[in-house]
Amino acid sequence: MPKGPDHVGVEQQMNQYKHISHSGGIALSELPVGASGVVAGFSVFLRGKKKFADIGIIPGSTLKMEAHAPFGGLLLVKIMDSSLSLHRNEADNIYIKEPGHEKTL
Questions:
Q1: Please, which contacts does 45-48 make with residues 24 or more away whose CB atoms are closer than 8 Å?
Q2: Domain of 51: which CATH number?
Q3: What is the rounded CA–CA span in Å between residue 77 and residue 83?
């Protein structure tokens, strides 16, 4: 099936909106290393929201970006007392508000 101006793939549609948040926040994937923020909400494109709720990523929870993997693959995020890795495409669909840029030791 040919793709034309009227036929846009799902991936392109998702990329068009991935950094837009109705909460006025930024995507978790854009949070700088060492910065923290509060989860504001999720994109409608995020799959497996229950998986994230099970590990504590829910609106109102505080996250801290610990590291970005080289070449853009995984992100290391601290939530409560645990560090976990997320794929960048998942983090594109989690929105953060009130990012703090202070480094903590």
A1: 45/14, 45/17, 45/18, 45/93, 46/90, 46/93, 46/94
A2: 2.30.30.90
A3: 6
pLDDT digits (tens, 9 = 90+) for 73-89: 899 999 989 999 999 98
- Is residue 96 within 8 Å of residue 27, measured between CB atoms? yes
Which is it for the CA torsion 86, 89, 95, 101, positive or negative? positive
Judge whether 95 and 80 are in contact, CB under 8 Å. no
Is residue 13 domain-resident?
no
Bigger pLDDT: 50 vs 55: 55
